[in-house]
Amino acid sequence: MRLRCCIVLVLSLILATLFGGCVRRRMTVQSNPPGATVYLDGKEIGQTPFSTNFDFYGKREFRVVKEGYETRTLLLPVRAPWYQWFPLDFVSEVLLPGKLTDRKYYEIDMHPIVIVPTSELFGRAEELRRLAHVHGNFRVADSLTPNDPVGQSGSLGPPPHSPF
C-alpha cells in the first residue's frame, strides 16, 4: 500500500512538471517620438517601439537616448502580479495547466534638447560668482518659492526649461 502511494505521488509530480503551467513575462516600451534606443539596467535592449521578454521584477533603470532629444533616465517599478507572489508563484509556474502572460507597457515622452544661448549661460555664471562673493557660499535648490527670489537665499533654482 505504501509503495503504491509513493508511485502515485512520483507519477503525479512528473505529470505536473510536464504538463504544468508557465508564466511568460513580456515588456513593451514606446517613446514619443519613436526610434529611441533603450537601455535596461545598463544594457541596450532595442529601439522603440519594441517588445521583449524579461525575467525579473522590481525597480529597473530605463535610459532612453535619441539624437536631438534629452536623454531620459528613469527608475521604474516592474511590479509582479498577484499570481507571482510567494507561495502562489509555485502554483502558477509549475502546477497550473496552461500558460499565463504578464504584459507590462511603458511609454516615455522625450523632450527636444534646448540649447541655452551663450549670453544666458554667461549670465548664470556671473550670478553664481556674485552669490558666492556676497554670501561666501550658496545652495542650489530644485525650485524657487514666490517669496524666495534669487539672491536672498542664494538659490538659483532650475534652468528656465527643465522637463523634471
Give a verbal description of the structure:
This protein is an alpha+beta fold. The chain has two domains: 108 residues, no CATH class; 51 residues, no CATH class. It has three helices and seven strands; from the N terminus they run αββββββαβα. The strands form two sheets. Strands 3-2-5-6 form a four-stranded antiparallel sheet, with no helix packed on it. It has a three-stranded mixed sheet with strand order 4-1-7.
Keywords:
164 residues, alpha+beta, four-stranded antiparallel sheet, three-stranded mixed sheet, 3 helices, 27% helix, elongated
Strand order of the largest sheet: 3-2-5-6
Number of domains: 2
User: Span from first to last CA?
Assistant: 70 Å
Strand content: 25-35%
Global shape:
elongated
On the 0-100 scale, what is the average pLDDT?
A: 75
The radius of gyration computed from the alpha-carbon positions, rounded to a whole number of angstroms, is 27 Å
Succession of helices and strands: HEEEEEEHEH
Helix content: 25-40%
State the helix count: 3
Structural class: alpha+beta
Major sheet: 4 strands, antiparallel
What's the multimeric state? single chain
Unreliable residue runs: 143-160
The strand count comes to 7
